[in-house]
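protien #1 (seq + structre)
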Amino acid sequence: MYLEIEKYGNINNALNSEFAKIKSPLRVQESESIDKFPLTYALVEYRNKFSQIYLAGKKHVFLPDFWRDGVCLANGQTNELNELVRVVDFWLLNDVSTNELSETFIWVKPNKKAIAFDENRAVEYAWNSYLKNEIFKDFQEFIEIAKQDEIIGKLFPFTSLMRLCFSRCTGYPYTYDIPIVIPIIDEKGKYEVRSSNDVIIGRGTAIQTLKMLKSHLPKNIKPAVKGTADDL
């Protein structure tokens, strides 16, 4: 189905050749596993952004995503190789918002969280998304008070295996040096606090949990910032 890829031998060569045609400095990130897996995926990075490109399996479609500061902000699909290269070049080399990207390339669709992250409201968005999500109802009482706290409420919340975790950055990979909160299912309104290395600190109500959490924070804790744990 991908005759233009076959022409160049693989997706990496095809993309690099097309980048060269439009005089773009971008090139595909080479992978150490290039000889181990079929080349149906490519990665292009530039500074704090990257795009992953996948080849659809049952029809001729290129599937790029669009990341900035460790957050996937948009996805798209096109069957034109030159259009794919143009959008990746535009996204990575220009200081544009996700909306500007989708307005320039109408086949790119921003994710729900894109505007909040573009407007530096990532922390607020994350807290509210958990508060409104019925899946995380066991956390609701704690989240309601934690999101208003002057310290915990300024950290970036995320979940892992139904554990509520907190990061000092808003992008993935997150930091893992802050205690976590786990709801006690058979005791409504009660929570367990564990250290980042899974040692139990204590159990209690939402208010008690917040106090335990704050008393075991790393020194000089600051509000979450853009970027990833690698940046920090």
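ok now protien #2
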Amino acid sequence: MRTLSETKFSILELAPVRDDKSIAFSLQHALELAQKAEDLGYERLWLAEHHNMDGIASSATAVLLGYLLANTKHIKLGSGGIMLPNHAPLVVAEQFGTLETLYPGRIELGLGRAPGTDQITMRALRRGRQETEEQFPQDVLEILQYFKVPEANQRIVATPGQNTHVPVWLLGSSLFSAQLAARLGLPYSFASHFAPRMLGQAIQLYRENFQASEYLDKPYVSMGVPTVVAETDEEAEYLATSAYQRVLGLMRGQSLKLKAPVQSMQGLWSPAEKMSVDNFYAMGQVGSHAKVKTGLERLLNKYDVDEFIFTCDIYDTDKRIENFSRLMEIKNDLN
């Protein structure tokens, strides 16, 4: 069983938009976080693709990745993930092949099977393309081929893209991508930061069915973990109310912009809504150094993952960056 110090720590960034700040502020903050993550020694920082959500500014994922790559030095950056039903595989391969050509060895492509948005927005993204989630396996294979040396008589070649060998991950919140990642021998990241219910089952399925490949010789798993780490448990619980309000907005179809923390959520949610938020954040780690360390060790003992990829919805941007500093102190056992 590995220890926290042996476990890789990474960040999943959604470029959250505060209710009192501009989108430009959010994008600048995403860069500041990437630079801080690089200084702290995080393994990677990924951006998530979501559309038509006023509180998430990472919709043009490849474009924002270019900005972050240009202003950092060595940290791995990637997508967590590109929602493949929204895109033609060739376009994805060309975009990430271009980024890999400009910044060799630093770009990663995480692929998701869901649209990452609502039905109306999905239709606006696809504009007549009859793409479905059922085509996902074939689309993944197509992208993997675009990144290889072209085969003889291959009629479509991604330029840039060919022979770049961009690392590809599969992401999922159900069992489908776990099975596909196992069959293709790809690394797998489970979206337990918002859909933790099938985490254990998906990891077991992936490991039991994994087939070694040119990409990996053994299974590699990361899991999403929401975090709010502060000086005290009480301060962390207070800061976490911004995250709870955000999930409440998602459930109610309201704004997803980050709201300032409140002293109590009582009166803001019903008992059923509280239960839903608690389920959403079942893997969440909220508290002081000691409490979060214990919580992460418990997750590691239960799931034995290779990597934690952390999210954080703290309103105050300085305290948000501080959250990731505190996590790295936990990893390095600095109390």
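The chain is about 40% helix and 15% strand.
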